[in-house]
Design goal:
842 residues; 39 strands; 21% helix; 22% strand
Length: 842
């Protein structure tokens, strides 16, 4: 920490970390903490320019703008009174103590040098008009995330005796605010020792003031600098996870995995819930079987063989553990555990679970966890039940478990990972997050996209939900289909449900439409791993989480705040999950979408939209709105060679919307290296030129080529285009065996290139002259909507006659349709199609 950025008095210390980030400390003992804490790990910023002055009195009261009305101000313009430094101010001031005025390029701080109060400490944010924070004020921020969704039905908690007591989730503080500021309180966060443990902290006030205005991404980047980067996930974590609370046997689990293979349903992670260990078999004298570390040999007679079998099928394995009840005398490893902790095994004394005891945790890992990991367990699912208190006062057992498990998880030479609930600010350093057991309801589904995207506001980017819902609720196959569609376009895709013969999430247990959707989307998720892994790199190396709320890119657009369930899914895609039932007559459901300026194309059916407006988008059960930006390049695995392996594929598919220039750097490494170094990576540049000379180029791979297959085939899928016959050049010569095909219904051109070395580049050159981008086939889209509509044939014929007239174009047809009595879902579906593109001149 640079001492030049510190302004200090007897009981206070103010540290200028950036022009917009201040640390505010007050201690009646005059003690200030310089060590890293549970939340803050790096205060090493380059000290910015700032000035200090003294004054006889504080600032005059100012009217603060309403949060939604806060407007950007000119950068560098102070919103507080211009207080002048005087000798009298230094010596006298209010009650004999002068006011400190500290000014950076972005902030003005006023402080009376006394104990922090609302009237004695305030900060103005220059870039947002009327933005002033007073000490103790709760900022109207855009929220962060929450510890767990256990027992939640949507955003309401249902585990109460009186339904009137059902409480609404209050999300934690986030970094971003339309008011221009937020505050993170680090006063209760324990200091870290040099070897990564924690100690109790002296009482103090320790705040971080974030005054970034609406520069949301800059704020987020500085958060990661202060609180630690998001670590790189193992590649396998980005595929599909199978999980269920069910009393599986080894044979039943193998049979299930073989069925998935036969159905071509790829999974990369197998999660075993608590019944892998002894549960009901535990003698009541030991209490419940909720905690356990001993395989149930009746169900899993040969754990090593079972785990090796799963590994042979490209599955990583996670075991569930509830550690609170400690290690009891019936456990296989109890004697070794007791001896290591100097307990006489003959006495049968329970080894108490105490995560605040370093020696206990050392033995816990070496005796219990490592023994099971040597059998083949890859990582742990740290489930609930460990409580909220430790023997070390103030230490959250959830946090220390996440911290210690994560640090220990690389002992076998693999990348670190753990799977647990959120434990407050700084938890992004310990992915993956388990959001808890939710009720199976439309309300729960409707809440999760917002909950997931808002978590990015506190840097938490890798939530995993129980996709399909966990418990209670009613059987609703449509709900399951929509939940899976959201799950594929969420950070971690993990199917899960509770015990019971009717809760399974196997696709074949659902109706035909849902089964088809689940299978197609599970294969889509697996094929997206190359794209997601590059976004994984971006989240870690470039401080850009996978999920962005819409206001990240357009903070001054009111519409960007009105679509809480819409978000950017990486750099190329925009997702808007559907979270309500379909309307019966239209057989479609809607969601409101804000489309930023530019051209956008539906990822699934190729329809093209003009942006810069709000739209209500309708979709049947087949898909949800997922939009590709103009110039989007989405590298994927070509699933023609089916495999559930998460390794870097030899067969690539690239989805392209060639309406603008685009560039994508495909980043790959071995997927599980414990250390993330630049020399580990291979990079393949994919570039699109959409100007006078229209080309798509696959550059030669560079960097660590040992992680790539020697040769790759490429399938280029260009959406929203006219039929064309491109030339394919490599090293100055035409490539042979290029296969082109065109799908008129979705305006999709596919160019298939046979295998060639990854060290060779290829350029696809498209014919000049005719426009490449196609016009929407409005009649075809409307025809499909009418065909599926469950309504009178006479009404369908009446609507079709209006569409056939062509008088007044799409807008004229829209006006006429508004005069016809029809189900609103049908009207909305048709109007969306008619208004996909704006009339010329608008």
């Amino acid at each position: 920490m640079d001492q030049k950025g510190i302004v200090k008095g007897e009981n206070y210390r103010i540290t200028v970390l950036t022009p917009s980030l201040l640390r505010l400390e007050y201690s009646s003992e005059g003690y200030f903490e310089d060590r890293a804490t549970q939340a803050v790990v790096n205060r090493d910023f380059e000290t910015p320019r700032f000035e200090t002055a003294w004054a006889l009195e504080g600032p005059k009261p100012t009217e603060r703008g309403e949060p939604k009305g806060a407007k950007p101000a000119e950068r560098g313009e102070s919103k507080g009174p211009q207080l002048v430094e005087t000798q009298a101010g230094k010596e006298a001031g209010d009650g004999g103590t002068p006011w400190l005025i500290l000014e950076t390029d972005e902030l003005v701080l006023y402080y009376n040098q006394k104990e922090f109060t609302a009237d004695g400490l305030m900060i103005d944010v220059k870039s947002v008009e009327g933005s002033r924070w007073r000490y103790g004020q709760e900022p109207g921020d855009l929220k962060g995330t929450y510890r767990t969704l256990d027992g939640m039905d949507g955003e309401r908690y249902i585990y109460v005796k009186d339904p009137a007591d059902c409480g609404k989730i209050e999300l934690g503080t986030g970094l971003l605010s339309r008011e221009g500021f937020s505050v993170i309180d680090d006063g209760a966060s324990m200091p870290m020792t040099e070897d990564g443990w924690v100690e109790q902290r002296r009482a103090c006030i320790d705040l971080y003031f974030w005054g970034y205005g609406h520069r949301y991404l800059e704020c987020l980047k500085d958060f990661y600098h202060l609180c630690g980067r998001t670590p790189l996930l193992p590649r396998y974590a980005l595929g599909n996870w199978w999980s269920r609370y069910h009393r599986y046997s080894a044979d039943e689990y193998k049979e299930l995995m073989l069925r998935f293979e036969a159905e071509r349903l790829p999974f990369s992670v197998a999660v075993l819930d608590m019944d892998w260990h002894l549960v009901d078999e535990v003698d009541p004298k030991y209490g419940s079987g909720w905690t356990g570390y001993t395989w149930n040999r009746e169900l899993f007679p040969d754990p090593e063989e079972f785990l090796a079998w799963l590994h042979d099928r490209n599955l990583k394995v996670s075991l569930n553990v509830h550690p609170a009840d400690g290690v009891r005398a019936y456990e296989e490893l109890y004697p070794e555990m007791a001896k290591a902790l100097k307990i006489d095994p003959a006495g049968g004394q329970t080894v108490e679970f105490d995560p605040s005891d370093r020696n206990f945790m050392k033995v816990y890992f070496e005796v219990l966890c490592h023994s099971l990991e040597r059998q083949g367990v890859d990582f742990w699912w740290l489930d609930w039940q460990q409580g909220t208190k430790c023997r070390l006062p103030g230490l959250d057992p959830l946090w220390i478990l996440n911290h210690a498990h994560y640090l220990d998880s690389s002992w076998k030479g693999t990348r670190r990972i753990t799977f647990s609930r959120y434990a407050e600010v700084g938890s992004h350093r310990y992915p993956v997050g388990f959001s808890g057991d939710t009720v199976i309801s439309w309300e729960s589904l409707a809440y999760q996209p917002y909950f997931t995207s808002t978590a990015s506001n506190i840097g938490y980017g890798w939530w995993s939900h129980d996709i399909g819902g966990h418990m209670r609720g009613v059987r609703d196959d449509e709900l399951v289909a929509r939940w899976v569609q959201f799950g594929v376009f969420s950070p971690i895709m993990r199917l899960h449900s509770t015990k019971g013969p009717f809760y399974g999430r196997e696709p074949w247990k659902h109706d035909a439409a849902t089964r088809e959707v689940m299978g197609r989307y599970l294969r889509l998720r697996h094929s997206l791993i190359p794209y997601l892994y590059t976004m994984n790199y971006r989240a870690s190396a470039e401080d850009q989480p996978l999920i962005w709320p819409m206001y990240y890119k357009e903070p001054e657009r009111e519409e960007a705040y009105q679509v809480p369930n819409e978000y950017y899914f990486g750099t190329e895609l925009l997702a808007a999950p559907i979270t309500r039932p379909m309307e019966k007559e239209a057989r479609a459901a809607w969601t409101d979408v804000w489309l930023p300026e530019g051209k956008w194309m539906d990822f699934f059916d190729g329809r093209i939209y003009d942006g810069g407006r709000m739209l209500r988008m309708w979709r049947g059960i087949e898909n949800i709105p997922v939009l590709m930006k103009a110039g989007a390049i989405v590298p994927m695995t070509d699933m023609k060679r089916y495999s559930n392996s998460a390794e870097n594929p030899a067969a690539m598919e690239v989805r392209i919307f060639p309406a603008a220039d685009g560039r994508f750097l495909l980043r790959e490494d071995d997927g599980d290296s414990p250390e993330d170094r630049p020399e580990n990576w291979a990079v393949t540049e994919l570039a699109l030129k959409a100007g006078d000379i229209r080309t798509f180029t696959i550059a030669p791979a560079r960097g660590n080529l040992s992680v790539l297959p020697e040769k790759r085939s490429w399938k280029l899928v260009l959406g929203g285009v006219r039929n064309a016959a491109p030339e394919v050049l490599s090293e100055g010569r035409m490539m042979e065996d290029v296969v082109c095909s065109y799908q008129r219904e979705s305006h999709t051109l596919t160019v298939e290139l046979k295998e060639f070395p990854v060290t060779r580049g290829v350029t696809v050159v498209f014919p000049q002259g005719e426009p490449l981008i196609a016009e929407n086939d409005v009649d075809a889209f409307c025809g499909r909507i009418l065909n599926r509509a469950q309504t009178e044939y006479a009404l369908k014929n009446q609507i079709w006659s209006v569409l056939e007239e062509k008088n007044g174009g799409p807008e004229g047809a829209a006006d006429k349709l508004n005069g016809i009595d029809m189900p609103e879902g049908l009207r909305g579906s048709l109007l969306e199609v008619l208004r996909m593109t704006l009339p010329k001149g608008e």
